[in-house]
Amino acid sequence: xxxxxxxxxxxxxxxxxxxxxxxxxxxxxxxxxxxxxxxxxxxxxxxxxxxxxxxxxxxxxxxxxxxxxxxxxxxxxxxxxxxxxxxxxxxxxxxxxxxxxxxxxxxxxxxxxxxxxxxxxxxxxxxxxxxxxxxxxxxxxxxxxxxxxxxxxxxxxxxxxxxxxxxxxxxxxxxxxxxxxxxxxxxxxxxxxxxxxxxxxxxxxxxxxxxxxxxxx
Length: 217
Prior knowledge:
Strand order of the largest sheet: 1-2-3-4
Distance between the termini: 30 Å
Strand content: 25-35%
Shape: globular
Largest sheet: 4 strands, antiparallel
Number of helices: 2
Number of strands: 16
């Protein structure tokens, strides 16, 4: 559930039509699909409290396997693109910074045999990399830059920032949303030593900065 444009939006885990709720009475107002807004968005679409926008993504079992877009504070769509993917996956969350959106393509995918039998079951493919797609807030599909990492899955995002750190290539480093160390790391410290504090390791990806300006009408 997220607050946007005077309403609470209740959203679905595997994408679907969001419903609007009164933030004071919690009364259900009905489907939040007015003014041309998308009829399917994922549960972890993210409002920007500074601009009043709602940045959303949607994923499906059929093409297009992922979409991304921006809804303005007036509840009207400002931007939408289809994200090119080879097949369906389970990208539960996303991350946003002032200028960029970070989309996920992890090797946790619907099992094709289960789908053929009319069932939904996911399968992890350890031979495939995890991929992070960085796109300017109002960028096109061909502006998405994909970064590969070791096979893993991340359910939720902690945070993402766009720090102005210029490296030797003249680009800015954008830290990836971070992931906690597992409890096995703390247990490995042993009974005679205090456990190490949980860390939030960051993966930095270098991209050229682009102003976050909405497309002209």
